[in-house]
Amino acid sequence: MTTAKNTKKIELTIHIIAWLVLLSIPIFSMEKTANGLAISDHFVHHQLAVIVCILIAFYVNYLFLIPHFLFDKKRKEKTQFLIINIVLLVCLIYILHFWKDRYILPLPIKGEPPPHHAEKIIAFPIVVLLRDSFVIVLTVFSSVVIRLNLRFAEKEEVRQEEQRARTQMELIHLRSQLNPHFLLNTLNNIYALIAFDKDMAQQAVYDLGKLLRYVLYENNDTFVPLTQEIEFLKNYIRLMRIRLSDNVKVNVVFDVAEDSTTQIAPLLFISLIENAFKHGISGEENDVISITIREVQGEKVICDIRNSYHPKNEQDQSGSGIGLQQVRKRMDLLYPKAYSWKIYVSEENLYCSTLIIFLNYDAN
């Protein structure tokens, strides 16, 4: 994965920079001499000894102890981790000061004073010991912090990947539910049409074939061009108008530029339009269905649908609301915190559904 590769690159970069800084310490510790700047041999030996001990303490923990004794382990393993590090600290301090005794603090030539750095080390043996111990302990602590942070980042990446997979599976499940629901409503409309005009029914079957081709084959991506979705809705509305009586007025406005590059999740609006045709017609009154979809300067898409309001009585069990429930779930998955949906009954006794999708949003 790209994210994992980037994490590895960052980790490698941190290691290289850290060790370059450590190895350059002697350069920043030059002393002035008669011949210019110089580095004491004793000081170089001392620094190299410290750096080697730091390297051992860091990578023994980073590569072995932390993964084997701290990651998802019980208290027993964590206690063992502490004990092993104490033993490691004692061994490194012993080796470090043995190195000093052997190489950094050679016996001075008779009649000559000891080297400048040797004087300091001899004068403060306990201070030096505590200082070196603190440096090694700090190194171990740093390795734990860095390794655990990387571990947390890796687990978070896995969690997000699992979440994306679950989201994708849920979207597939929702769309598999949507297609039969859409097909059921449309077939019912064609069935009603056959009774009074077979020629129109044949044309409706042809139009339905185009709709199903879009549903089954042309919208398999997570997002499709808004213009393509609008064309699909136009075909669907034309199919629905065939069976309407003269006392039903349908107003349709699509305010989307032909060259619009906006991408949108497919089949979001169809359930809202289905709902208007299904519940906005009583068959006895002068009803109205108003459908408006418009894009506002690439910032948002507004779908406003209004239809005559005919509240159900207790005996009316038609319409379980599956389509609207699926729209809500898909919006929560695809546009989290990036949409507004208001459903209300206006003073004109119209059932209103206004869905606004904000296009400029961060899904993360």
Q: Which SSEs are present, and which pair or pack?
A:
Blueprint: H1 2-23, E1 31-33, E2 36-38, H2 41-69, H3 75-104, H4 116-123, H5 125-194, H6 198-218, E3 224-225, H7 226-241, E4 248-255, E5 263-264, H8 270-279, E6 287-296, E7 300-308, H9 322-334, E8 339-345, E9 350-358
Parallel strand pairs: 4-6
Antiparallel strand pairs: 1-2, 3-5, 6-7, 7-9, 8-9
Helix pairs in contact: 2-3, 2-5, 3-5, 5-6, 5-9, 6-7
Q: How would you characterize the overall build of this protein?
A:
The protein is of the alpha+beta class. It folds into two domains: 2-159, no CATH class; 196-358, Heat Shock Protein 90, CATH 3.30.565. It is built from nine helices and nine strands. It has helices at 2-23, 41-69, 75-104, 116-123, 125-194, 198-218, 226-241, 270-279, 322-334, and strands spanning 31-33, 36-38, 224-225, 248-255, 263-264, 287-296, 300-308, 339-345, 350-358. It has a five-stranded mixed beta sheet, with helices on one face. It has a two-stranded antiparallel sheet with strand order 1-2. A hairpin with a 3-residue loop joins strand 6 and strand 7. The radius of gyration is 37 Å and the shape is rod-shaped.
